[in-house]
Give the backbone structure.
Amino acid sequence: MRSMGKDKNRLAWIIVSASVLIFPVIVGKGYYLSVMNFIALYSMVAIGLCLLTGYGGQLSISHSAFFAIGAYSSAIFSLRSGVHPILAVLLSQFVSCIAAWGIGAVVLRLKGHYLAIATLSFTMIVGVLIKEMAWLTGGLQGLASIPPFSIGGFLFNSDWRFYFLVWPVTLLLLLFSLNLVDSRMGRIFRATKENEDIARLFGADVKKYKVKLFVLSSMYASLAGSLYAHFVGFVSPVTASIMFAIDIIMILAFGGFTLLWGAMLGAASLTFLNEYLTVFADYKRAIYGGALILIMLFFPNGILEGLKGWGRFLIARQLRGARG
Amino acid sequence: MLLLQGISKRFSGLAALSQVSFGAEEGVIKGVIGPNGAGKTTLFNIITGVFPPSEGSITFLGKEISGKKPEEIARLGISRTFQQAHLFKSLTVLENVMLGRHYRTRAEFLACGLRLPWARREEKAIRESSLDYLGLFGLGDKRDMIASKLPMGEQRYLELARALATEPKLLILDEPTSGLNDSERDDFREVISQIRKKGITLLVIEHHMKFIMELCDDIVVLNFGVKIAEGSPREIQASPKVIEAYLGREETIDP
């Protein structure tokens, strides 16, 4: 993006961060805090996938698997080895990093649909391992009473407290991502997405970059998973469900694949929809799917770009009206 | 500086090039001509590592480069443009040139994401030198346009600016003037002479005879994948083999 866009992004980041952090202080405690916490966790995963898919052009359906790896590793380290949650989170990131590197180095040789299927298969494998390795993962029962995250004796054990852990982390990851896409690396990703062969003629070791981007992207998901485990205190095979991987892709479709802000907006919209559609119980997913089809039909680049386009259209019409 | 020895390329049995050998001295402009299908672009693709030769060796500055990956060859200082300008269509004009600075710079994920001071300085330097390259071609005020929106002639200049931004030692131009009119072509020749003054060696494929004869120090002629002549423009123009390749042979019909 140009320098103007860069400054706009930074300004937007400051405004959004300030609002998100001040809002609960003004409004006070309430049920909405829990919804907001989930929005942060989903945003984290969606931002990670946005980097890989929207900017790098590599579609992965394995982010729920890395979320689960992060969540289960954190649970296992803190329950079975009794390490401090901070260390548990760090060790989990290490585990995910190794896993993402191993799987990324193999599957990123594939492109397009083949890559999507390979990553989907990985998600299924992780799901099966979690169910079957009951001695480690608790099997279908899952693992309960995971200790909350804490720093120096301060426990992040309520919605209110967790809010001020998960949002700063999410916002910093967003800033990191905004910087990244607007840099030397961001340019080479966008170039690779467009034409990998030409990008290589500019001396870019595209294969290496793709694996590194995959690792980075997966670690966003895994960090969200770790924080989730310490927040909810309970993990089960549902955490690793493929539906969750699909949800994240839906979030991006909603917000626009090529916009980090869209990932945030998509996460917020879908989480709210999810909350308020509970009255429809089992039909929730159907309504959700219908909404997505409409979005894809009318706003193929996501709601953010779509609304911008409508805004421009309406302004142009107003101007024409004023003149004529 | 560039030496090709016995280069052959077969595509599933079809010989696109056979036993082509020639060299290019530092600082020269070397032309490669030949009728359509003579194997010129295949030859350029082999030099830049798009695919390996079936046989033969290519040395660049004394190093064997045949069979190396395109990114490795690029980093040694070989850059190219294409028959149809291959710009990154979703990037801006400036970003396309900034991409040319890629392997001359080194900030990776962490440095870029955290905006470390040295990475910011590097980004600023990339930006400034890229603007200089754009300025060379008078494209400075179009820097924020999406590259694909540029008119054809300017797309060619942009591609050249991007190739120069890599600071190549050898620059390979594949039909740089196709789609240009006569006056644009004259401008382009002027630009190429400027590039040569920077000490960059050039390898040029071209169909336009007047253009190539006036531009090059030395010309190689390919026909059906075989080198049929090599020499100065004057020698090439006088060579019966070349005339035959382009115009066909005179047949005498016995009564």
